[in-house]
Amino acid sequence: MIEISYYGHSAFLVTIGGTKVLFDPFISPNAMAQQIDIAQIMPDYILISHGHEDHVADVERIAKQSGAVLVSNFEIVSWFQKKGIDQVHPMNHGGTKQFGFGKVKYVNAVHSSTLPDNSPGGNPGGFVVESAEGTFYFAGDTALTYDMKLIGEEYNVDFAFLPIGDNFTMGIDDALKAADFVGTNTIVGMHYDTFPYIVIDEKAVGQKAKDAQKELILLEIGEKIILGNK
């Protein structure tokens, strides 16, 4: 089984066979996540999809307090190395690596990626994580792309973390198509409600998911759930 803890926006702590993997930590600057104490977050790995502030804000602090291995593209890893983070593993699009918790593939995303000081953050991406506990797709910030069909052809995806806030990323309609492309009926929604531009009507998106016969999970900040091989 895979335990998922939600820290707001696109930040999730995913525990796979006892290994804690943190995705895109934007917590301390997020007014909606003030109840989350980042001093208590001690992951083994931190996976970063792209360089925008609302995905990397707490990386440096959490990496230094935990000693976690930072996994991202070459440009983002290099940028954090200059900040004194030395436990790193750079990747790039199409690359796959076996880690202790499972196999990770860095896949395409259509977005942009500039780091907080305006340094180039390389090309944005997402991750497919394959493990004995289950397989999932973390899309990062992305538009709908036909490349997602390749994920469905290669993997048996149990669930997918997909952005649904629209404006900067996919909205619910494209997210439902993305779920079809990757071959899953279970969506964990992310990248919504944090800013005025991406506020959603939860009732309306929930109905669209129901009509498409998809399970759309919208977690409360601080909530935990179990997915994968239960």
From TrEMBL:
Pfam families: Lactamase_B_3 (PF13483). The keyword Protein biosynthesis does not apply. Residues 8-191 form the Metallo-beta-lactamase domain. The keyword Hydrolase applies. HAMAP family: UPF0173 (MF_00457). InterPro entries: Metallo-B-lactamas, RibonucZ/Hydroxyglut_hydro, UPF0173, UPF0173_UPF0282_UlaG_hydrolase. This is UPF0173 metal-dependent hydrolase ADIS_1168. Keywords: Hydrolase. Transmembrane segments: none annotated. It comes from Lunatimonas lonarensis. One of its GO terms (molecular function) is hydrolase activity. Belongs to the UPF0173 family.
